[in-house]
Amino acid sequence: MAKTHPLGFRIEPDIKEALTVAAKEDHRSVSSLVELIIAKWLRENGYLAGQPHRSLRPALDA
């Protein structure tokens, strides 16, 4: 198994509560759910797994 790297950040209490509920309903840890959400966003926006890159600022790329 590959080593993982810690990442700490602050979030609003309502987001933390929603993550906790969603993680529990999906039978996973909050950390696992956050990693899944981040990876999905990165794939959808072309930053992970060979997807084409899409700028975060498409209006400026035109």
TrEMBL record:
GO terms for biological process: regulation of DNA-templated transcription. SUPFAM superfamilies: Ribbon-helix-helix (SSF47598). It comes from the Bacteria. InterPro entries: Arc_rbn_hlx_hlx, Ribbon_hlx_hlx. This is Uncharacterized protein. It comes from Kumtagia ephedrae.
